[in-house]
Write a structure and sequence with these properties.
Blueprint (H helix, E strand, L loop, with lengths): L1 H31 L4 H42 L3 E5 L9 H10 L12 E6 L11 E5 L2 H10 L9 E4 L3 H14 L4 E4 L2 E5 L5 E4 L2 H10 L4 H7 L7
Antiparallel strand pairs: 1-3, 1-4, 2-3, 5-6, 6-7
Helix pairs in contact: 1-2, 5-7
Length: 235
């Protein structure tokens, strides 16, 4: 995804440079005037060339967008067996797998889960004195992950929470949706953001292009603003 971001940055720089040059050239042609046939011909060729370049840039943007969507989909599928556990205190030389297994078999009473059910478990990010880092857990199968996801409500009332391991783009979309519609009106399922609108309708979203029309169709309410701050909610 970092390479894609670099491509997008280069594309944006080229487009800005092109627009600047086209504007400068257009201004020069206009300053000469259109009295002479040669100038008029050059001006017409310039307009044709500019339209062609704009068309090519538009096609390039579309292709980059489609490529980004495909990469995001691939990364989401790669994360299907993973979950994030937040709120677990950190300790030196800790065994993350053992800590997660203790929660699953203890607090969630999932007796069928064993050590072999957990393939990978480790902290994400750099250590911090302000908060405990989340633990990323990759499970042995989708069935194990689904069983834990269904049972996560058993952690209510504790400081521990379970979340899906969303891609950077989908996490950004999810955050925007929760800020607009409220925390209790947005959740995720298998990497898909689900939104419950004020009229009770539900919408599945995976891209900004799918979210933006909903933001316009359902204006932000004061209750959603309060909910997004975690004070109260009305849905």
């Amino acid at each position: 995804m970092s390479q894609l971001a670099e491509i997008l940055s280069i594309q944006k720089t080229l487009e800005e440079s092109f627009n600047k040059k086209m504007n400068e050239l257009g201004a020069q042609i206009q300053s000469v005037g259109t009295a002479k046939d040669t100038v008029a011909k050059v001006a017409e060729e310039f307009r044709t060339f500019r339209e062609l370049i704009y068309s090519m840039l538009g096609l390039l943007r579309k292709q980059i967008h489609e490529c980004a969507m495909q990469l995001d989909g691939m990364e989401t599928r790669h994360r299907r067996k993973a979950l994030l556990f937040q709120g677990l205190p950190e300790a030196e030389k800790e065994d993350c797998s053992a800590a997660i297994l203790d929660i699953l078999t203890g607090k969630l009473a999932l007796r069928s889960i064993t050590a072999s059910s957990i393939k990978v478990a480790h902290r994400l990010g750099n250590p911090s004195n302000d908060h405990a880092r989340p633990i990323l857990v990759k499970f042995a199968s989708l069935d194990v992950k689904a069983e834990i996801w269904r049972a996560k409500s058993g952690l209510k009332g504790t400081k521990i929470s379970v979340k899906e391991f969303l891609t950077k783009d989908r996490q950004s979309i999810f955050s925007r949706a929760r800020q607009h519609f409220g925390m209790r009106s947005c959740w995720t399922q298998d990497g898909v953001i689900i939104i419950k609108a004020v009229d009770g309708s539900r919408h599945k979203v995976t891209t900004s292009g799918e979210l933006n029309p909903l933001l316009v169709k359902f204006p932000k309410t004061s209750s959603a603003s309060i909910d997004a701050r975690g004070v109260s909610a009305k849905v």
